[in-house]
Amino acid sequence: MADRPGFRKRTFRLHIYIATLFLALLVAFAAISIATQHYLSRGMMLSSAETLFNRIGQEVKQSIAAIYQPARSAAELLSRSSLIDANTLDKRLVRLPLMAAVLQNHQEVSAVYVGYQNGDFFLLRRFDPHSFLGRALGAPPEAAYLVQSMARDTEGLRDPRFVLYSDDLTQLSSQPVPNYIFDPRTRPWYQAAQGQQRVISTAPYLFYTTREVGATVAQASINGTAVVGVDVTLGALSSFLDTQRPTPSAQIFIFNEKGEVLADTDSDYKLQVDDLGTPRLPKIEDLSHPLLSAISAHASTELNRTRAYNTPDGIWQGIVTGWASDKSSYYIAIAAPQRELLATATRIRNISLWLSVAMLLFAIPITYILSRLASGPLKALIRETRAVQALKFDEPITVRSFIDEIDKLARSMDRMKSTIHRLLSIGSVLGGERKFDRLLSRILSETTAITNARGGLIYLVNDDGKLEPRFAYWDGQDRQIVPTLFDLAQDKDHPLVIAFNEGKCAKRLSVEDLRRWHPHLNADKPLISMAVALRDRQGQVIGVLLVSPEEESLSERTMADRLALVEAISGTAAVAIETQRLIQEQKDLLQSLIELTAGAIDSKSAYTGGHCQRVPVLTELLAEAAQDSEDGAFKDFSLTEEQWEELHIAAWLHDCGKVTSPEYVIDKATKLETIYDRLHEVRMRFEVIKREAEVACWKSIAEGADRTAALAELDKLWATLDEEFAFLARSNVGGEFMAPPDIERVRKIAERRWTRTLDDRIGVSYDEAERKSRQQAAPLPVSEPLLADKPEHIILRPDREKIAADNPWGFKVKVPEYLYNRGEIYNLTIQRGTLTEEERYKINEHMIETIRMLTRLPLPRHLRNAPEIAGGHHEKMDGTGYPKRLKRDEMSVPARMMAIADIFEALTAGDRPYKKAKTLSESLAIMAKMRDTNHIDPDLFDLFLASGVYRRYSEQYLSPAQIDAVDIEPLRRRASA
């Protein structure tokens, strides 16, 4: 087999074999030792963790008992005091020091109170004069205690009252509180203590006044006329749990049998609010905590046993312990990441591993020292050739040898490696450059560096077919270009033209030629000029690259080598230039299409004016102000070049969805207007009724009726009809508000009848015929009401127009049942304006369409946030906006900027036929109110005022009559209040 052609026998060198065997045994021994040690230490750590978890559980139970015990003692003491029999506020205040002592000695007690059998109530709590209640009561700063009293005066009437005391129980104020209505007999603690001869404690709940989490300890008096209550807060329990963490990331939870979380170590623990706005204890599912959910699932079946829990955050080791109190079950869950519990075992394993690695690293050089001496510099050069093959150029070749041929080979390979490295790096550098001028500068700087040239120039072919200088680099810096054009027909002898025609040229230029053709180079001696044509992917010459070496003279071979090197670089440079041009042309095309779309939207309806073209200007002015801010909320705000492009495109396309908005809805000027104003139909019906009345009048005269009376009655009816039509015409125009009596009059007028003798189902569109078929046609002639809401007026909403609650865009909007409702009475009784609910939704739907359209576009990665920016300008900071109901923290800063720009432009726009342009002061005052109601970002509005963006925009786009004096300081003070 050894003689077979192409077959190479596998061979091993002795020192390689010995070293490999030794290192393999060393690695195997270390691996077995480390694995065994880690397994044993892991078991020991987990066993210790179980013991630690049980101890922590006992300490938590003891802590809870310690919190309740003082309250039990206080309740039992007060239930036997004279406070029970006190029947007036003054008598009850005598025992105030006793109640204050309970609060002073026990920080966990938040309130002490007594509920009486007749509905009276007497409570003492600590008081913060700076709280909301303190400000409402006008409390002095020394107020330390608050008495809430529900007593009866001398006449037997209830006298609800708040009394403030200082820290030394000096009365500060006593205020009646008529709205304070509280009956202790309805509270669970009162009802639970009644009939009991012992101290009872309630399950933890939310306190009525303070909304703190805690429990009530209560004791009924011996005579059964009152119940003493002591509120114990569990707020300190969470802090205590935090101190009991067995590891830094450990979690401790306390929850009851209902799944309500009473305390935990998580700083994000928050009370929940039900559908009625009432705070409640959070349940396990409310916290969305995978670990807690996993632990609670096994709470009742695996008490006091540790087990492992798999969560998205990793594997946790945990235990659940429980106890019962007053017929309720409570659980303490303690868990810690296994990675922290096993940190010591892991550290021991890592130390062993590093020691093994250190021994291995120490053994490797010892093993290989002698073998490397045998291999010599040739082996090093073989490795270097492999590094070049793998495109690794991190370090130069430093191999040297006392043999002349090997040494020269090493130096030659080092130069070759450096040249290849620089050639490859030029490609990556040029491919990553995005600015055209910087690209040209990098091409010249890299080319002159790799060719040891003094400088160079780039000429590109302009639209006239001439070579135009675009960039010069000389003596290590960019040079100003003198616009010297080269005509391809007249300047045939110039190296640039020769290279353009022949592909390359190397020629010596005199000082006179340099001054005539390249005056910006300031050369004082002849130079060698090497020029190479730049060709695009189709092989067309797009320009010429020229470089001038430092040497005054070069051999033909050296010049040919240099020229070949420049030619190799020119290919990469030409592709980079062409790519940048194509990218720029595509961006210009995209920008033109975007501006064309925005312009078309603005031109589509006079109701939008130049809105789409002005909002980008205002948005970018505000973004520039934020980027220039050196302090405040936006001192760290900055946009990259790509983010500026993203903001620019999003601003121009922020209303692109309006292309789908029907123009007759946007421009709807009257209530009955669709594509035309249906008031003309109503007018014709009035005319028909008048004609019918006239015919009936003359018919009655012909039959013998009194002529004068009949004509008088006809004139009276005509006058009534004329007035009723005038009323409907006024109602059709719309206004600020249509009163209920006017609405009722419309309905009354609608009851008048007229006679139709022609079929209204012929000659109509398929859709209209389909709608009319919803009810059976009446035989002709038919008497019809003057106005009606007919089934045919209802245009059903197709499935494609419906938005599911779980839609992929996150829209949270109320979609009207019908697409349109063109009922005549329905439209004429619109209370405000001229739009129905369906039409208002159709106009607002442009935001939904904007987001849909932009998300369907295959946007580049750096423009992926454009839909979010463009689609958020109708959102409000309080989450009541449109269409996603986003809150301030859920929106990006550019999206919030565009909301301000959109509002300010709409307020100040002077090209809208439906409104008068507002002045600068009026617009800013309106926006300040919107800021105060949490509709717009207060920080951005303050920047909008402080930076003068509003003024710069106004000077360019507002009429002089709109630009009035504005004092922004009051607006800013409200913003910072």
Description:
There is one protein chain. Helix content is 47%, strand content 16%. By secondary structure, the protein is α+β, with helices and mostly antiparallel strands. Strand 21 (527-535) and strand 22 form a beta hairpin. One of its GO terms (molecular function) is phosphoric diester hydrolase activity. The chain crosses the membrane at residues 14-35.
Please give the structural blueprint.
Layout lengths: L13 H65 L10 H5 L2 H10 L3 E8 L4 E6 L5 H6 L5 E10 L5 E9 L4 E6 L11 H6 L6 E2 L3 E2 L6 E8 L5 E8 L1 H9 L7 E6 L4 E4 L7 E2 L5 E2 L3 H4 L2 H7 L10 E5 L2 E12 L2 E10 H4 L1 H33 L1 H13 L14 H29 L3 H15 L2 E9 L5 E8 L2 E3 L15 H8 L1 E6 L1 H7 L9 E9 L5 E9 L6 H49 L6 H18 L12 H12 L10 H4 L12 H24 L4 H27 L6 H10 L3 E4 L9 H7 L9 E4 L8 E3 L21 E4 L2 H5 L8 H20 L9 H5 L22 H16 L11 H13 L5 H9 L2 H9 L10 H9 L1
Antiparallel strand pairs: 1-2, 1-9, 2-3, 3-4, 4-5, 6-8, 7-8, 8-9, 10-11, 10-16, 12-13, 14-15, 15-16, 17-18, 17-22, 18-19, 20-21, 21-22, 23-24, 25-26
Helix pairs in contact: 1-10, 11-12, 12-13, 12-16, 13-16, 17-18, 17-27, 17-30, 20-21, 27-28, 29-31
The biggest sheet amounts to: 9 strands, antiparallel
Q: Which structural class should the secondary elements be placed in? A: alpha+beta
Tell me, briefly, the overall form: flat
Q: Could you say how many structural domains there are in total?
A: 5
The CATH topology of the largest domain turns out to be Beta-Lactamase
The CATH homologous superfamily of the largest domain:
GAF domain
Multimeric status of the protein: single chain
Uncertain segments: none
Rounded mean pLDDT is: 77
Count of strand segments: 26
State the helix count: 31
State the share of residues found in helices, binned by percent.
Answer: 40-55%
Domain HD-GYP: 751-960
Keywords: Membrane, Transmembrane, Transmembrane helix
GO molecular function: phosphoric diester hydrolase activity
GO cellular component, one term: membrane
